[in-house]
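Why does residue order matter? Because the sequence determines the fold. Keep that principle in mind as you read this record.
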Amino acid sequence: MVAEPKPEPFITIELFDLVRSLEGVIHKPSSIHDELKEMKHWLKVELNDRDDWKKPFYYMDGEKGDQWFRLSSYQRDLYEVLDQEPLSKGGVYAGDRIFAIDIDDVIDPVTLVLKEPKILDLINYLKAPVYLSSSGKGIHILGKFQEGVVVDAPSFNLSYRETEGKTGQFLGGNYPNFVAFTGVVVPPYDFPGFPAVNQEEWEWIREFLWSEETRQQYREPSEPETLANPVPEPQTRALRESEPNNEPFGIKWKPNYRTHVKNMMYGVDEPTGNVDTSISGWVFNWIKTYIRGAEEPTCGGAVELSIRAEGYRLKKQRPGIKQRTNKPEKWHQGNATNAWLELADSGELVVLGKGEKIGKTSAEDQLLQAVKHAQSVKMKPSTEKIFLQIVASASGRDRYKLTNRKIAEVTGLNARTVKRAKAELAQHDCLKIEGRKYILRLDNQCSPTISE
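Structure:
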């Protein structure tokens, strides 16, 4: 009887050791395809509560931020992100047309043999570079969709697997998410290029990655949509029998929060960083979401939301464990106060000064409008930087005050440059400047004449 040949290792021990030693650093960024490097889909990464380099964050007004719903507004190109502290560390935001297939636990950590040979069919079909995950046991395949492709991934989690083990996740499309990217490519699967998937190819990938049972299900995306060109949704998910056909807790939510809060209600794709899974933690996260996402949040409304959210979770306690009882109203009042204070301390909650006014346009949309405007007119680089900083510092206000010193401090430019830029910006109809006072009129069309 002839013994079957031993399978060859999928990766070398050197690659396995390398990827596990990176600690958030992207290996050989120069080898990444230019198109992917230049796309503004990159974010910083830091340790999460499990000591894995998988928690995304970004810089806003020179300060570090990690609010999940803002991730898609503060991406940069690769080299800009790598130059930020901590140096050389980063990851990819899979959303809009960018996608990543995160395949978990398919490499044996001892023999380094591929435990799920079926994925070779996917690799050879896509002809996309295969990158190792930070554990050394999984792989990431990145690509993009051609314009007009209808992406209807039936589930965040994959179900292609024939052997035991974790399956992985689909990141992007109708499930935007962050990818902890290593840059360590697996030879001989270092295909050149960055594949653009068309509708027919997506149908093949969809058939491959999900079982028939999973493909019959469909969920809406979990993150509030802030991208300029969202992927079109092919259909609307039908409500389950137990799902109310109204907005969660009877609150009128901002349009870009409605999908997010519905998914929070039913435990779908909770945000990264929401590590407190206790009832108290869940309720506190709901209060902060109410303050951010309700159309007209009030202190009384936050207390009422705290009480209702607690009641909702108490009804769902599993039998057989110690049952928590309702907290008194005083506890809910303190809970709401702490949420307001936390958001104010982080700078996320804007406290209005005398003469300042919150506008109808969200902070994220204000910044998108400003970027589009800066790209459509002739503007000096330093002026563009100051213009975008003025809009970013508005944080949703359309009338507020900001000193020249603060602008210079945040942008790293000198006071003289700030004054010159303000004189240039005074020619724009979309921004009125009255000394330290700024009035944003970003809906206005303007074609200023800029002197050289």
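The first strand starts at residue 42 and ends at 47.
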